[in-house]
Every structure is written in structure tokens, then in C-alpha cells.
Amino acid sequence: MAEIMLVVQKYGGTSVGSIERIKEVAKRVAATRAAGHQVAVVVSAMSGETNRLLGLARQIAAQPDERERDVLVSTGEQVSVALLAMALKETGYPAFSLLGHQVQISTDSAFGRARIKHINTNRLLSALRDGHIVVVAGFQGVDAEDNITTLGRGGSDTTAVALAAAVKAEACEIYTDVDGVYSADPRICPHARKLSRISYDEMLELASLGAKVLQTRSVELAKRYQVPVHVRSSFSPEEGTWLVQEDPSMEEVIVSGVTSDLDQAKITLLRVPDRPGLAAKLFSPIADDNIVVDMIIQNASADGFTDLTFTVPKGDTPKALARVKAAAPEIGADGVVFDTEVAKVSIVGLGMRSHAGVAARMFQTLAREGINIQMISTSEIKISVVIAAKYTELAVRVLHDALIPPAK
Amino acid sequence: MAEIMLVVQKYGGTSVGSIERIKEVAKRVAATRAAGHQVAVVVSAMSGETNRLLGLARQIAAQPDERERDVLVSTGEQVSVALLAMALKETGYPAFSLLGHQVQISTDSAFGRARIKHINTNRLLSALRDGHIVVVAGFQGVDAEDNITTLGRGGSDTTAVALAAAVKAEACEIYTDVDGVYSADPRICPHARKLSRISYDEMLELASLGAKVLQTRSVELAKRYQVPVHVRSSFSPEEGTWLVQEDPSMEEVIVSGVTSDLDQAKITLLRVPDRPGLAAKLFSPIADDNIVVDMIIQNASADGFTDLTFTVPKGDTPKALARVKAAAPEIGADGVVFDTEVAKVSIVGLGMRSHAGVAARMFQTLAREGINIQMISTSEIKISVVIAAKYTELAVRVLHDALIPPAK
Does residue A68 register a pLDDT over 60? Predict the structure, then answer.
């Protein structure tokens, strides 16, 4: 007889986007319960609902009150859990819903971007032990003053992982519309393959790839509490990708994935006198504008001048340029140039820590195709390069074929 | 300087039926606050929203789980309070929303028809004292196990009156789309006039008239806790009708109102042997079907037989007839006849307790118009007659003109 497990399943907005889909989800959950497992389900709002509610709020005020906005949008998940619990009861299993404040998912009071501080598992665990299926509203919590809070975009992933950590679930299954995490985007790279396992650290580095299936914050949480996360398709019974703690065998795979990010713009200050405090003078005002600077390259030459290049999200280019141009005279730059037609291409892999020569192979592979590298940045398990945007797909394909062995 | 009052205002679904109307309500509430008063506001779901949500539930299950149905429909009021609180903040006054469980409106666990047991006023009163406008979700409460409950149709009236009682408000203002309670339906009776005051007991007897503006249950609650309720129009600044404890002067008005009810059907059992236990045998199975029997007339003749006539809501006629026909042979009735083309017309007034001859004047007035009286039923402050439906409007008009003095 198979082992009885405690499983947390999370279904996103598309999976509960219509009454028919909610009934399909109910069947899937009931099947897990029928196999003898204990099941807690986390659901998002029906797709489109959160935007509909925010649209109402914006008709009232350009900047709606943040506390009330959370009261408003949290109704989206409340509708989903009620409907799914009803559908589950139709399958014959005892089931009920719990909202954030009913579970007691305690958060801080940062409305719209609250962080979970503690989850009370008493009511949840006793219901699961009694054979109930518990449907928990994703994305929402409650602060110390009994106010409703929400966790921000993708918050239901965070709820699911946090819940799985709190109840010590054997698995946290994230159901989505793709069937797992791939070594590269299959639409770009025909040889891309589904990874059966990936380490939390690799998944974090693959953020731009991973963001399509899992919010970065939920991966950080999974890593901290070592929650086994299973990313899989809601339309197929096949296994997807397991996010796990690394083990020795994983280092045998040198590169796990290749990823690209077109949401990048490059800004360069020309011939800046290389004096202490330069970076602070430049980047403090940019940070004040909440612009996230990704890569920074400073290359001092012997004559005491330096070119300073950095990247920002493409949409922030005008704001960043305004700040840079305002600072340029003070720091003595000769001029400012920028380029929005760039891409960041990265290779990620635990094995890079112990295998020399990976960077060299990456650069050689790109050089062979005549692709010029504009910037380089490395971390322990990642190498990123900035190249001209037009070469993005080509770069991903050749790096994948050169560095990732074909599936057996 | 005017006295500072604590006022509870209630706005129904039509009053908050669109973003524009919500903004209008915010203006009205802010004006009350600007006059120096403390204001708590109770709102219903936007019109149509509760039915939309129930429609979703019915697509999941013919009989949706009752607990989850309350989780679902209570989102309607949650959306309204959030939007109104946002709109109030735009007026510059501090305002926030409270849901049933946040106020702590404690109810029993009868989902869909819960009764309020206790209201915690701590958070509410301290916020009002600090100058905040508090927007409370109508229709919803929380049971002892922290489950969401709802109070049934018209529950927001009940929330408003119960809240006014709990905080000892100087007034509970019920804003609606009519401008008060009338001595008769103005569409039927051109001489009908708006009552400036009416006693709780009269309002209860005028239920079929009053149901258009106020739920019976909220009137019972107002009577028990002597809450001064002010029924008035959300579209006009004029005073409406005050529901108040009776005072001696009110007995001077013999008849306050005339009302009619077309939702009646009459069922008669012919020549039943008049034996003890007859009524029990007949009415127990009807009660088992949750059919509310209104008037019952039994008139025994000297030969030991009786005709037995009673009225039921028109829609329950087929169910009631089935029960009666099943019981008829056992109780020895000669036959069963029924009539759905009947109406109940009533006159209501505190003064009837001390003034003789009101009934006689009522019967004479109807006789003068050739209107045959089929059944009569009286209470201390009400006389009801059943007549042919076609005479309804005529009966209301002649009774109003004969028994209610014209406005000065």
C-alpha cells in the first residue's frame, strides 16, 4: 500500500477561470484525496477578476486607499475558494474553505505587498486529519489589527509554499499551464528539455525563465524551509519539475539551463574621471526612483578616466536617463549614450562552481557565431552576458547545444 | 450650536448600484460628518451582485453547500464597503471599512438566515469618537467557530438597526428609493399621504406595505430596543417617516394605513364532520411543507358539520392542495374548493384599541360599493378582510377616504 502523504496543491487563476475549470480542478483534487492523501488546496482569483476589481477602485480614486484596496481585491480569492469547496462537496468528499484570517495567515501591515510572519496550523491540521479537504484562499493574510492584507502579484504561490512549510507537507504541487521548468524556452530552442529536478538556487538564477511558472519570492521561501515544490501541468497527469535541495549528483550537470531577458536597456557614461564616490553620486538618485539596476561594469583605464555602463529594465530607461543626465556634469562625464536593443543571456548550473572553463566555452561559442559580448557578469552558479537583441534566439540555441548534453 | 449625534445610515443595493451612486452616497455621508455628527454607515451589495454570485453557485450545484454560499455572497458587501470607504477618503474625512467578523457581529450558525446574538462595539465606538467614518458590511456576521454567516434577504436593514441599538445611536436612517411610509400605496390611492411618524406595532402590521421599504425583522428589532428609525429617500433631503415608540397622541389617529396583499389563495374544505383534532390533522402536514397559513376560519353549524377555510401564499397553492386532498378522506370532508383570485385588504391603527365601531364602518364602506367580504380576521390594531381580487384598488381607495382624515 502506498504511503499516505500530506500534499498542498496550488491552482492559478487560469485553472479556476470558469465554472467548468473549477469542476475539473475539483476532480483532480478529489482523485488525490481518493488515493488516501491529505490535501490542502490553495487557489487564486478567477482569471480577470483581480483586474476587474482594481478597475472599479480606479474609477473611485487615482490612488485608492491601500487598506481598502486589499479589502476589495481579496474578494476575488474568496469567491474562488467558496466555489471550489462547493464543487468538492459535489464529489462526495467533506470539504470547506478558509480565508486568510480564518487560517490565521499572519502578516505585517504592508498593504498590497505584505509578508507572511506566521501561519497557525491548528484548525488546518485537525481538519486534514479528519479527512477534510481544506481550500485556502491564496494571496491574502491578516495583520495584527485584524486588517485584511494581500501579498502582491503571484502571492498565491507564496501562500502555497508557506502553507506547505508550516504543515510540513511532503509536496507542494504548483499547477500551471506549462508542464515544468525547461533547460531553455522550447519556443526558441528545439533541443530544450524538461528538467526533472532543479535546485532552489538554480531556479532563483533562472528567475526570468522561472517567473513564467513561479514567483521568485516563493522560490526563496521554498529554499529557506526546504519545501519540495513540484511544478506541473493542470492539463496532464505527467510529472513536471521538482525544486529540491541540491545533492552531490546534481553537480554532475554543469549547466542546467540557458535563459534570455529582453527587458533590458544599457546606459553608458563616457570618460568619467575615476574618483571615489562616483558610483554613489550616480546610483543614489536612481535608487530613489525605485529603478532596479541589474549589471554594473566599470572599467578604469590607465589615464584616470573610466567608462561606466549599467543596465535597467527597459521601461525605466527615460526615468534613468533623466537622472543620469542631471548627474553627468557634476561627476564630469563626457557624455551619455544608451541602447535599448540589447538582451541578457545567462547560463545557470550548480556544476559551474567546481568545473573550470565553462565561461571560456560560453565565450568561444558566441564568438564562433560572430556575436559580440558587450557586458559580462558572473555569480557562483551563473554567467550572464549582454549582447545585441537581434542575436538572442541564436545565442540561446548555440549555448544550449554546446553546454547542455542531450537527453538520454 | 446643534447637538452632536451618533447616526447609523443604511444604503441599499440600488443606492450603491454604480460607481457614480457610490460617490453620491459618499457626499451625503460626508455632509452628515461635516455637520459634526458621528457616522457609521451600513451598505448592501451593489444591486444585482448577490444574484450574480448565486448564479455562479447554481452552476456548480443545484443545492450549493450553505456554509460556502455564505462565504461566496458575503463578498458582495465586502466590495461595497471597500469602494465606499475609498470614496469617503476622497472627500477628505478619515474612513475605513469593517466586515462582519471585524466588527464582531456574532450570530448563530444558521447559514443563510443567521440571527445576531451580540455586537462588539469597542473598535467601532473608539473609531467614531476619534472622528472616523466607519463603513460596516451589511447582511453578514460571524459564528462562534469564526465561520462567515449571512442574515438572509433584507439583512442589511437588520444589521443597521442592530448596530444602532448596540451603539445607542440617536437615529438609524434607512435610505431607500421611496421617501417614507404612506397611509396607502400612492399608485392606487391618490389621497394617500406620507406619515411623519408611525409606531413599531403599526409598522409590523403594515408589513405587506412596509416590506417595500423595511424588512419585518428589522422592525421587530427596532421595537425591542426602541431604536428611532428614519425611513427616507436617498434622492431628496426631505424628512421621511420616523418609526417610534407609541405615545398617547398617536391614539388620536384611529386608522394610520390601508394596505392590500394580492399574494393570497383561499382553500375551503366543505362539510367536514366537526370533531376534535380536525385542525391538527389538516395543518400539521401543511406546516411540514413550510407553507405559512395566514387566516383560518372555521364556522361550525348546528348539524355537526363545518366549512373550514384558510389562506396560503399564492405560489404554495399546488403544494397545499395536494396535502389537503390527501387528508380530505381521513377527516371526512365532502370536497375541496379553492380560489386564487382573492386579495387581503387591511386597516391598521393604534386608535382602534380604544375606538369602537371601526370594524362596522369598514364593513359598511365596502358594502356600499357592493364588495362582498369572504373572510374576516382581526387583531388588536388591525382588521383584515378577504375579497375578490378585482375589487382591490377600489377597496383601498374607499377605505382610505372613509377612515383616514385628509392631511391638514
Answer: yes
Asked if A97 lies within 8 A of B56 by C-beta distance, the reply is no
| Mean predicted lDDT score pLDDT of chain A | 91
Q: Residues A148, A269: one domain?
A: no
pLDDT tens track for A178-204:
889 999 988 899 999 999 999 999 998
Q: Does B19 contact A60 at a Cβ distance shorter than 8 Å?
A: yes
pLDDT over threshold 50, residue B1: no
Same domain, A11 and A150: yes
Residue A162 lies in a domain: yes
**From the list A71, A85, A97, which residue is nearest B82 (CB)?**
A71
Give, in order, the Cα–Cα distances in Å from A393 to each of A139, A189, A322, A344: 35, 8, 32, 11
Q: What is the mean pLDDT of residues B186-203?
A: 91
Are both B63 and B171 inside the same structural domain?
A: yes
Q: Which of B61, B86, B99 sits opposite A60 (nearest CB)?
A: B86
Domain boundary among B176, B199, B232: B176
Quick check: B86 and A61 CB within 8 A? Answer: yes
User: Grid coordinates representing B26?
Assistant: 459618499
In angstroms, the CA A260 to CA A208 distance is: 7
Q: Report the chain B residue with the minimal C-alpha distance to residue A46.
A: B56
Flag if A101 and B96 touch (Cβ within 8 Å).
no
Q: Please state, in angstroms and rounded to a whole number, the distance separating the CA atoms of residues A231 and A234.
A: 10
Alpha helices in A61-154 (DSSP H): 66-90, 100-103, 122-129
Assign residue B100 the CATH number of its domain.
3.40.1160.10
Which of A24, A53, A65, A86 is the mutation pick for testing B, counting most B CBs within 10 A? Answer: A86
Alpha carbon of B125: minimum distance to chain A alpha carbons (Å):
16
The rounded distance, in Å, linking the Cα atoms of B191 and A220 is 74
A39 occurs within a structural domain: yes
Judged against a pLDDT cut of 70, whether residue B209 lies above it is answered with no
A65 — contact with chain B (CB < 8 Å)?
A: yes
CA proximity to B153, closest of B51, B65, B15, B72: B51
Minimal CA separation from A61 to chain B, in Å: 7
CATH number at residue B363: 3.30.2130.10
Domain boundary among B142, B176, B210: B176
Structural domain of residue A377, as residue ranges? 258-403
Domain count of the fold of chain B: 2
In a domain, A296, yes or no: yes
B273 and B134, same structural domain?
no
**Residue A1 in this model has a pLDDT that exceeds 60:** no
Asked if B75 is an interface residue toward chain A (Cβ–Cβ < 8 A), one would say: yes
Q: Could you tell me if residue B228 is inside a domain?
A: no
How far apart are the two ends of chain B, measured CA to CA in Å?
32
- Residue B135's pLDDT band, with cuts at 50, 70 and 90, is very high
How confident is the model over B320-329, as pLDDT tens digits? 999 999 988 8
**What pTM was estimated for this model as a whole?**
0.85
Distance CA A15, CA A157 (A): 13
**Strand A305-312 versus strand A257-273 pairing type:** antiparallel
Close Cβ partners of A398 (under 8 Å, ≥ 6 residues apart): A365, A366, A368, A369
Do A97 and B71 make contact, defined as CB atoms within 8 angstroms? Answer: yes
Residue B147 Cα, gap to closest chain A Cα (Å): 8
Alpha carbon distance A174, A157 (integer Å): 7
**C-beta atoms of A67 and B23 within 8 A:** no
